[in-house]
Input
Amino acid sequence: MLKAKDIMTRKVVTVSPETRIDVAAKLLLENHFNGLPVVDAEGRLKGILCQDDLIVQQKKFPLPSVFTILDGVIPLTSSKQMEKEVQKMAALTVGQAMTPDPLTVDPDTSLEDIATLMVKRNIHSLPVMEKQRLVGIIGKEDILRTLVSAPK
Output
């Protein structure tokens, strides 16, 4: 049974929270990455920047949903959620756009568990952590590669 350590990319390209969005976008595009782990100066995982985190910058400004009752307006969207969305849309740095505290797997996580997580949670990249140290990353391409190399 294949495990994370068998399919992960070991030479992980990372960015810092201070990296500019345009630099990170270029890295994603040029290397055909779905996501980039975000690490601090000590190498601790702080988040992940995915293509979706950058695409959100191009969407329309979300108008809050409200309903009126007895001449009062009741928001259906929390102000905290709206603030978070606006911050992502206006992000200039990776730290402002990234998804903090990403879901991770360890090197012994099975391929089946990884695939299940990716599908259920709509995740494109999973950092692989060992003793709180980033040791690899698994993207959807890594999963697909196992299908191509599987014995028939």
